[in-house]
Amino acid sequence: LAGMVELIDDRVLAEFTIECGWSELGDRLVDRFDGVADRVVLYFANPVLADEATMGRFGAVAALMADRNRS
Question: Residue 38 in 3-state DSSP?
Answer without folding.
Answer: coil
